[in-house]
Amino acid sequence: VPFDEEAGPQLLERVLGRDTAGAEAALRAPAPPDFARPEDGLTSLLGAATEGLLHLVRLLCEAAADLDKPAQFGVTPIYSAARCGHEEVVRFLTEFGADKDRPEVNGTTPLMIAASAGQLPVVRALCEAGAETNTQLANGVSSLYLTAHLGHAEVVEELCRARAETDARTHNGATPLYVAAQQGHGEVVQRLCNAGADRDMPEVHGATPLLVAAHQGHSTAALALCNARADVHRPRCDGAAPLWVAAKEGHQSVVRLLTSARADANVTCEGKASPLWVAAKAGHVEVVELLCDAGANKDWQAEGGATPLYAAAARGHAQVVGLLCSLGASTEDRLQDELGATALYIAAQNSFSEVVRLLCEAGADKDVALRDGSTALAIAAHLGDLETVHCLCSAGADWNKPCPDGATPLCLAAAGGFLEVVRCLCGAGADGDRPRHDGATPL
C-alpha cells in the first residue's frame, strides 16, 4: 500500500503532541514513518526519542522507521536520546539495531554526548551494548576526556571499566588525567589513577598533571596525584617545577602539600629564580614562611644578584620583608650591576617607608652607598619623601654624608624645594652651610 504523503506532517504532529492513539491512526493511513520536517529534518522517531517516549519509539520502529535517519547537523534518534538521558529509549534502539556509534557532523558520538552530559545510565547502556569507547574527535578529544574535563567521576569509572584508553592524548598532548587535574576534579583524578592512568604524562609544553594542578591551586587534585606517587620534581619545558609554580601563584595549600611530599624547596626555573624568590617578589607571605620552614635558602640570589629580601623590598611587600628579616636573611647583599643597590636603597628609592623602617630595625647599614656614592637618605631627600627621610634620620643615618658631587641630603632637598624634608633634616642636625664641590650651599 503506498504511503499517504500528506499524512506525514500529521504523524509528526501527533508524536510531538504525545498522542499515541493519533500516531497509530496516522500510521494506518498509512503515513510515511520517515517524514522529515523540511526546515530542520526532524522525524517522528527523532522527536519521540528526544522526548523519551518509549511507547511511541517502539511503535515507529515496528512501523519500519529508519533508525539512523539524521536530522539537521547529523543528529540521529539514538544520539538525541543519549544526550537527553533517556536510558530505556537508548537500550531499545540499540537492541532494535540502531547504529550506536554514528556521529553527528562534528564527530561527536552518542557515547561522547552522554559522557559529557554526565548521563551515567545511558553511558552504561551504550557500553554494555558494545559502543566504541575510544573514538576521538579531530582534536583528539575522547569520551573519557570530555567527562573527565567536566568532573563526572562515576561516568569516568564506568568508561574505564569499559576499557576506555586512560592515556589517550589530544592534539595538545593533554590526557584525561591532565584535564581533570587542570579543572581541579580531585575525585576524577583519584579514579583515573586507580584505573592505571600515567600520573606523569605531560602535555606538549612538558606540564604534568601535578604541575597543572599546582599552577591552578587545586589542592585536592594535587593530593590525589601525590598519593598516587606522581613525580613532585618533574618540571615543564621551561624548567618550572610544581613547587615553583605553586609558590609563584601563592597557592599556600599546594605549597604545604608539596613540601610535605619532599619537593625541593630550592629548585630553580632555568637557574634564574627559586620558589622563595618568586613568592617573595609576589608578596605571598604565608608561602614564604612555608618555604623557609622547608629549608629554602633565604639568601639565594637570582640572576643579577637580587635576593628574596631585595625582591620583596623593591615591591613594598612589608610583611615579607619583616618575616625574612626575622628569619635572619642578609640585609647587605647588593645587586651585581654597576650600581650595586641594596634592599634598603631600593626601598628608599621607591618610597616604601615601612619597608625602610623594617630594614633599619633589622640592622641594615643605613649609610651604605651605591657604587656611584648615593645613599638611601640622599635618594629619599632628592625625591622629597618625608616619611622615609624621617625614618632614616630616626634610625641614625648620617644626614651629612655627601654624594660624589659633595651634595648632602639637605642640599638635595633644598634644591627640590621640599620644605618639610628640609625642616626634618635641619631638626636632626644637618649642616645647613655645608656646600657642594661647586661651592653651592643648601641656601
Strand content: under 5%
In the CATH classification, which architecture of the domain at 1-132 applies?
Alpha Horseshoe
From the spread of the alpha carbons, the general shape counts as elongated
Estimated radius of gyration:
36 Å
In DSSP terms (H or I, runs of 4 or more residues), the helix count works out at 26
* Distance separating the two termini: 117 Å
CATH third-level topology of the domain at 1-132: Serine Threonine Protein Phosphatase 5, Tetratricopeptide repeat
Mean pLDDT: 96
The computed structural class is: mainly alpha
CATH-assigned homologous superfamily of the domain at 1-132:
Ankyrin repeat-containing domain
Stretches with pLDDT under 50, minimum 5 residues? none
Major beta-sheet overview:
none
Number of strands: 0
Helix content: 40-55%
The CATH class assignment of the domain at 1-132 is Mainly Alpha
Order of helices and strands: HHHHHHHHHHHHHHHHHHHHHHHHHH
Overview of this structure, please?
By secondary structure, the chain is mainly α. Among the domains are: 1-132, Ankyrin repeat-containing domain (Serine Threonine Protein Phosphatase 5, Tetratricopeptide repeat), CATH 1.25.40.20; 264-365, Serine Threonine Protein Phosphatase 5, Tetratricopeptide repeat; 377-442, Alpha Horseshoe (Serine Threonine Protein Phosphatase 5, Tetratricopeptide repeat). It has 26 helices and no strands. The protein has helices at 7-16, 20-28, 44-51, 54-62, 77-84, 87-96, 110-116, 120-128, 143-150, 153-161, 176-183, 186-194, 209-216, 219-227, 242-249, 252-260, 275-282, 285-293, 308-314, 318-326, 343-349, 353-361, 376-383, 386-394, 409-416, 419-428. The relative contact order is 0.04. The mean pLDDT is 96. Pfam families: Ank (PF00023), Ank_2 (PF12796). ANK repeats lie at residues 73-105, 106-138, 139-171, 172-204, 238-270, 271-303, 304-336, 339-371, 372-400, 405-437. Keywords: ANK repeat, Repeat.
